[in-house]
TrEMBL record:
Keywords: Cell outer membrane, Membrane, Receptor, TonB box, Transmembrane, Transmembrane beta strand, Transport. Its main location: membrane. It is a multi-pass membrane protein. PANTHER family: PLUG DOMAIN-CONTAINING PROTEIN, TONB-DEPENDENT RECEPTOR-LIKE BETA-BARREL DOMAIN-CONTAINING PROTEIN. It is found in: Cell outer membrane. Belongs to the TonB-dependent receptor family. The keyword Lipid metabolism does not apply. Residues 454-876 form the TonB-dependent receptor-like beta-barrel domain. It comes from Flammeovirga agarivorans. Residues 128-230 form the TonB-dependent receptor plug domain. This is TonB-dependent receptor. It holds the Pfam family Plug. SUPFAM superfamilies: Carboxypeptidase regulatory domain-like, Porins. GO terms for cellular component: cell outer membrane.
Length: 925
């Protein structure tokens, strides 16, 4: 950390020291700061650029007379004479006049520039709804490579991370990922997730975006299934003239190398499908190859990021085309310790097993993006957008499990029962989207737009192999591993896909009403048919009745003569199912702007839902309960109203209300059983789970003082009826979704951006409080006064926050932007406070993620007008990600590895992800 601070000091210190000269601000006659305007000092030909706060500063000018020349596109050049005296600084506030000729041309031929930070700030200011925008310019300067990590910089947003520490799902305003949805260019996309409807945001490379929009208050023309917010990815658009960019970087993860080489296997040897899917009714062990399941070790696996985009306009600027591609290879993982816990009769927590886990994960992320737009004439245009994203995660999870009871002695290093489990798993997720859109200005007061959408998402886990051995430890020495017991080797296949066909239509009327400054009426609708299929197969193997000792009977997995336990596979698996969700929606919306100061937007949306599933191979129990298929239909009316009062040209006061509906995930209402989740709990669907209804209130004050500065403070309140959460039933051995009465969620958001010429600070803080009361179980003596009476289970009501909601979320970024020197620096820190990680069926036994800090660094240096070199550094603090149960450990448990002192909370999980670095080059052509 000290080296990083020293580097920043060396970079910035020479720029802080300055002598006398000319300073001031540059604004347009319309009052807008002209950020990026070029200032020339003649006759010495010295130049500077207007900073992010609209000011400039030119140092080291000798005493004398000078001519200031200011140039900015869309404004007339300004020429002014100034005199610098021996007394030092001269202040000049300069105002440029709008160039009417250039402005008219921009209106006729130009398109709105969406990639700049200025455009993002302007969108936030003029929008009719509560939203935050991150521009492509800000994304490029950030340390983040995928959309998930970008969105965590937005106020009120935190991340749910995967086991390699990479961001995956967004939690908006304390609302779990199920309460948000994702759009690409304004249309919803399906999810490749094998159980849920939310989209893993780590699928999308950030360098394909023009901007990222987070909307926190829904309007009637938006789909109504969000409570927290909506994340919209606006992909790259065709430029006004030929342009392109090439990006290439290479890096390293400090987790791997030395004593911890990167562990992998021959992923190309994975069987693409099991024997049963190929028509084999009765498989034999010879049908399965084990040759690819041999451990391979590499001392260095490079992180590689490469991307290219190229675009232009043709046919007298009527046809615009852009093609962009991105490829990322990142080696990630963790050094982890996990504890299996139980509940004792006195209500305290037992530590039943300890697992030392090492994760080795190679991510290969690819994105392709192509967009064409054709301007038929000034009133009609069409766009055709296509995108394909592909993410392959090749992961080895190597586990040493120690039974922490019986003969376990953590002081002298004795363990009578241990096991070693190595899992080889490739997860391949893909999304394809094709959208044809048209915009038509039918007359001055009537326009229409439409979108025809085809999307398909898929998730494949081919040949998920788990190899289990047993062992023991004596005086810290591990005895040879043994293959014993049933199902020492399992081979599992999962596949699911989700296909959407949708049509959106919108009609907008803008009649003139004498007593209203601006009027808009909008009606439209949506038709979407969604079909999802899920398939599953698993085979189990053992090595016979005699325990095989490593070093004597075998050395690797290929030395074993495996015996198949279930040659017909899993014949009656509820993991095989088809489901559908058909949505029909219509809305009516109005917007009145009174005197160009007070705006009201409101209306109502109707959504008709037809949802259901079918199990082609149900178990007898499911048939007996009549659960082999299900179909539900319901209608929701979702009103909303938004008020915006323009206090001044630079400040707004907003308030809003909207109602929303959250449907269960696709597998959550299907009575399937999944025992291979990341947390190793069996999950069970619940056919009785109901949709959640949300009532949402917002209030926000906004101030945009000058340039890129902003200040926002707001509050929100959410009432959830029948919220869906998972609860762990230890007796039944699974977790399942269910509805838990009503819940409340409220909070305050503060968002500040302030620039001081070349220096800037960006900070946001969100406080969130939520409350839900559920019934929890606990143990008690049947007669509390009699210690010999039977132990019985009783229940009590427990109040707690919503799962995933952190009370405190904060971002702080220190910025330096010196356009003259071509240098950009961003030091970004994000903090996520304590939040519930997993729910328990027992009172006071939920698992909590401890507060987590992460610091990242990004530095860019322009070498010449076309070339930039950059450095990105991640997780500089290398803090541990930890999960605890808020029950005190006893003296015996205090001797267990990683646990604290007597009375400290029980540690359930601790992960270290280590640091990562990237060094790269961008070339614009």
């Amino acid at each position: 950390m000290s080296r990083i601070l020293t580097l920043l000091t060396l970079l910035l210190f020479p720029i802080i020291i300055h002598a006398g000269g000319i300073k001031g601000s540059v604004n347009g006659s319309d009052g807008e700061p002209l950020i990026g305007a070029v200032i020339s000092i003649e006759p010495i030909h010295k130049q500077s650029i207007v900073g992010m706060d609209g000011t400039f500063r030119i140092n080291d000018l000798p005493k004398g007379d000078y001519t200031i020349v200011v140039k900015y596109i869309g404004y007339k050049d300004l020429v002014k004479e100034v005199r610098v005296s021996s007394e030092g600084w001269v202040s000049n506030d300069l105002i440029l006049q709008v160039d009417a000729i250039q402005l008219d041309e921009a209106v006729v031929y130009g398109t709105k520039e969406r990639k700049t930070a200025e455009s993002a700030r302007a969108t936030e200011r003029v929008s009719s709804k509560v939203m935050t925008v991150v521009s492509a310019q800000d994304i490029e300067l950030s340390p983040d490579l995928n959309v998930a990590n970008v969105v965590q910089r937005v106020s009120g947003v935190s991340l749910e991370r995967n086991n390699s520490g990479d961001g995956q799902f967004a939690i908006v305003r304390g609302m779990d990922k199920r309460y948000n949805y994702t759009l690409v260019n304004g249309v919803k996309i399906p999810s490749p997730d094998n159980k849920n409807r939310y989209v893993p945001l780590d699928l999308f490379p950030s360098d394909l975006l023009d901007r990222l929009e987070v909307t926190k208050a829904l309007t009637p023309d938006m789909e109504g299934d969000a409570v927290g917010g909506v994340i919209n990815m606006e992909m790259k658009d065709a430029p006004e003239s030929y342009s392109g960019q090439l990006n290439l970087s290479i890096g390293n993860n400090t987790l791997f190398g030395g004593n911890n080489p990167f562990m992998t296997w021959n992923t190309g040897g994975n069987m693409t499908s099991p024997p049963s899917w190929n028509g084999v009714a009765r498989a034999d062990a010879s049908d399965f190859s084990n040759q690819h399941l041999l451990n391979q070790y590499k001392n260095y696996v490079p992180n590689i990021v490469a991307g290219m985009s190229i675009g232009n306009r043709f046919m007298d600027d009527k046809l615009g085309v852009i093609v962009a591609g991105s490829y990322q290879q990142t080696a990630r993982g963790s050094e982890s310790t996990w504890f299996d816990t139980g509940m004792l009769a006195d209500g305290s927590t037992s530590l039943d097993n300890m697992e030392d886990r090492n994760y080795y994960q190679l991510q290969k992320r690819m994105g392709l993006h192509a967009k064409m737009d054709y301007r038929i004439n000034q009133d009609h245009s069409i766009q055709w957008y296509n995108a394909f994203v592909h993410l392959q995660n090749d992961q080895v999870r190597d586990v040493t499990r120690t039974r922490t009871w019986g003969s376990y002695d953590p002081i002298n290093g004795n363990a009578g029962e241990m096991s070693y489990v190595t899992r080889y798993r490739s997860t391949i997720q893909q999304i394809f989207n094709s959208t044809l859109t048209g915009q038509h200005q039918l007359n001055p007061w009537f326009k229409a737009d439409w979108s025809a959408v085809y999307s398909k998402a898929s998730n494949s886990i081919p040949d998920n192999a788990k190899f289990t051995r047993s062992g023991s430890m004596n005086n810290w020495v591990h005895e040879p591993e043994r293959i014993a017991g049933r199902s020492a080797l399992t081979r599992r296949w999962d596949y699911n896909d989700d296909e959407d066909i949708a049509l959106y239509t919108n009609f907008t009327f803008t009649p003139e009403i004498s007593f209203i400054y601006d009027t808009e009426f909008k009606v439209g609708g949506l038709v979407r048919n969604k079909n999802r299929s899920n398939d599953f197969e698993q085979y189990r193997f053992n090595a016979g009745n005699r325990a095989l000792v490593k070093g004597e009977d075998w050395n690797d997995i290929t030395d074993v003569d495996w015996i198949i336990e279930n040659p017909t596979g899993v014949n009656y698996s509820p993991n095989r199912y088809q489901s559908h969700e058909n949505i029909r929606a219509a809305y009516g919306q109005f917007k009145f702007d009174f005197s160009n100061r007070f705006e009201v937007l409101g209306g109502v949306r109707m959504e008709h839902t037809d949802i259901g599933y079918y199990l082609p191979q149900p178990t007898n129990e499911i048939v007996e309960n009549g659960l082999e298929e299900m179909n539900q239909t319901y209608v929701d009316f979702l009103p909303s109203i938004h008020f915006k009062y323009k206090i001044s040209e630079k400040s707004n006061l907003r308030s809003s209300y909207f109602k929303s509906v959250i449907r269960p995930g696709f597998s959550e209402f299907v009575p399937i059983e999944n025992g291979d989740t990341e947390d190793d709990w069996t999950e069970m669907g619940n056919p009785l789970v109901e949709r959640t209804i949300g009532h949402n209130l917002d209030l926000r004050y906004e101030l945009f003082p000058k340039g890129m500065d902003k200040f926002m403070i707001g509050g929100f309140y959410k009432k959830l009826i029948n919220p869906i959460e998972y609860s762990l039933n230890r007796q039944a051995g699974y977790i399942m979704p269910d509805n838990y009465g009503d819940a409340e969620n409220m909070g305050i958001e503060i968002d500040v951006v302030k620039y001081f010429n070349k220096f800037g600070i960006s900070a946001n803080y969100t406080y969130t409080h939520s409350s839900i009361t559920t019934e929890k179980a606990y143990y008690e003596r049947e007669n509390p006064e009699d210690d010999t009476s039977d132990i019985v289970i009783r229940s009590a009501l427990e109040e707690r926050p919503l799962q995933g909601q952190a009370a405190h979320i904060a971002n702080l970024s220190l910025l330096y932007k010196n356009t003259d020197a071509g240098l950009d620096v961003q030091l970004a820190t994000v903090y996520t406070g304590d939040r519930i990680h997993s729910l328990s069926a027992f009172y006071g036994n939920d698992m909590w993620q401890r507060g987590f800090f992460q610091m990242d660094l990004s530095v860019e240096k322009r070498i010449n007008p076309k070339t930039i070199v950059y450095l990105k550094a991640y997780n500089l603090l290398d803090n541990a990600y930890e999960v605890e149960i808020r029950q005190p450990i006893n003296e015996a448990q205090s001797y267990f590895p990683k646990q604290g002192d007597v009375g400290d909370n029980v540690l359930v999980r601790q992960d270290f992800y280590r640091r990562q670095f990237l060094l790269g080059l961008k070339y614009n052509f």
